[in-house]
Amino acid sequence: MRDPSDPRPRLVLVGHGMVGQRFLQALTDRGPLGHRVTVLAEEPRPAYDRVHLTSWLSGTTVEELSLWPADFAAAHGIELHLGDPATAVDRDRRTVTTRSGRTVAYDTLVLATGSAPFVPPVPGHDLPGCFVYRTLEDLEAIRARAEHPGVTTGIVVGGGLLGLEAAGAMLAMGLTTHVVECAPRLMAVQVDEGGGAALRREIENMGVTVRTGTTGEAVEAGPDGSAGRMVLSDGDSLDAQLVVFAAGVRPRDQLARDCGLPVGERGGIVVDAACRTADPHILAIGECARAADGRVYGLVAPGYAMAEAAAAELTGGRGSFTGADTSTRLKLLGVEVAAFGDPHGTGDGVLEVLYSNSREGVYKKLCIDPEGRLVGGVLVGDADSYDLLRPLAATGNPLTIPPEQLVLPTSAGPAAAGRASLPDEAVICSCHNVTKGTLCSAVTDDGCTDVPSVKRLTNAGTGCGSCTKALERIVGEALGPQASRPRGLCEHFDRTRAELYEIVRVKGITTFSRLIDEHGRGEGCDVCKPVVASILASLGNGHVLDGEQAALQDTNDHFLANLQRNGSYSVVPRVPGGEITAAGLITIGEIARDFGLYSKITGGQRIDLFGATVDQLPQIWRRLVDAGFESGHAYGKALRTVKSCVGQTWCRYGVQDSVGLAIELELRYRGLRAPHKLKAAVSGCARECAEAQSKDFGVIATAQGWNLYVGGNGGTTPRHADLLAAGLDRATLLRTIDRFLMFYIRTADRLERTAPWLERLEGGLDHLRAVVMDDSLGICAELDALMDRHVETYEDEWRATLDDPERLRRFVSFANAPGTPDPTVRFVPERGQIRPATAAEVAAR
Known about the structure:
alpha/beta; five-stranded parallel β-sheet; globular
């Protein structure tokens, strides 16, 4: 029943995935909500970024993946029910019933139930050890299985986008990995035979076994009753203790079927251009819907467009969705793959322009119609031109330059000439349907002065992220001469971070006050102060808690510890290379016991102790320092860890001493302050158990020496590192990493990690290689000297703090009552340890 105190019509959204959340945002973007909104979600958490789901396995947190702002529900009066999916719709009474028995009335119902993984009905598909790859819970279960003793081999059934993502995850977890695909090639929908061959070659080079043209006939149980072997249709069989089915998805349209709404022959709730079903009170959007053009779209961009259309329809506008661009760009196991337009050239008279370089793993194909128009293409191994080619194909205009120049390597083809020919109506961001004209207008008419402000205004680049490079180039061109002028760090400095670094270095400035007096204005702010503090620390200008520098630090640096959600802090001692003695483990265990701390082994191969209050930090660190531990710098923008496998010392596959090198690297670069955190890893062989290719710098052992990779990261936009140099001896490796790190610290922007820095660097990887290996800028002697100075002057920040009574004075909960613990820091027991108390638990006491 409608609440008499709120006369607004009742809107119920069934499903809270990416498309459902986009629908809510589109509604709220159009002004105050004209509906009472209830959301019924099946998963136990609000909407999150499923496009970058795999990044969770490499360290991206659930909070970073979340698409649900903390205050969104309260700000807009939205009622969200998690873990309680809709199970029935009564169209006559206009009610929805949920699994818990809740009945919710609606005036308008929006179905955004998405799709479900297709699991072939082969015998044994439901054995323990068999999974799908769709939700965070799926990934949690897969990782738990991969860590189970005796699980060494995994099979992915399906060689499409999701299947190769799953294969990459298996490989990263150290499993021997197979991909089984029924089609004659990988990614058969997106790429042609030549592109599939190039993709397969690169993926197999990474250690994945690919079986095409065959299917799984049965999963057989092992001795423990869980998955142990898969029988293939070609008569072969493969041992596997973990099986992931990623053989496609099907629209989740059962609710519609059960209440009598029409669905397509191959599934999908039938909707019109306004996303309305046959029932005018019910709309359907996203992967559960069969659009007006008869297609069911399995990509996020069409789902977002449908969400926008439905929101417009419900707020007095005219929603219209008649089709969408299904172009795709992604990186699979480090291999760039893109397809746009009609990648198979199915039209009459379409001819192909090909460029193939199997030595470099590059394949490019353009499809050109008889009128000279670009109608589609495939890119494998090098997709840098995707941001130009996709909108060029969408314009429908004849090309103004020879198409072969668009597939040749950048050094041989004037790609920029093609970008200038893009009309204003060319769609640059397909996720949010943002055109080139809209981007330019954001600069010329709305006063945007940089890429972030254009993103905020237009939403471009905030979806899958594949348009980022095109966005940056177009905004740069629109800014014109403005773009070449340095952007100030903040209102107090007209210089960039890189320029301030050079000023501090060259002039020998050691204080913030001198720098702002001579090169800035005002008193400074929470943007420039931590940046200058980091620069001073990078150049070895004293302890971070000394004198004026102490007032510049971020919250974490202020107490040399990570602030947690309830006002307590975590303690992370350094464990170089993950190697720790029994005595060290005992010391950490005793400290955790004596102070009642929560202990957790981290993804970086060290132990994190949670729950310390400010006044306890010096007591804890005194015991750690006395036992030989030092600061792990988990609180600072500095080197975190150098992860390693056990290498040739223990592993039968290892070809080099990865632990020894990891320890050497971590002790060499410990405490190195940088624009952002730094993560590293060393793998003792090509099996890559330490995940070196997802780190800011990573090293992989070969029989010929060490291969050095740079510019990788996890997070919301994961990026595989690039191979900077191969077959290096130990001395050359160290010197190259030294220079890479110092060049990054010298030139990066504020809070810019190595991955976006490398992508932004003019000339990219080739330029970086020329700088640090060939000394093309003549600065290598300076970079070497800076690193030598860091190594020679390193001092453990916690040991130095404990030896200085003045520094220790800051470690109190209350300045006027030293020794008094903070009463607001409360914990409750859980699984034999503690965790922060929730607001409700605090109130109940």
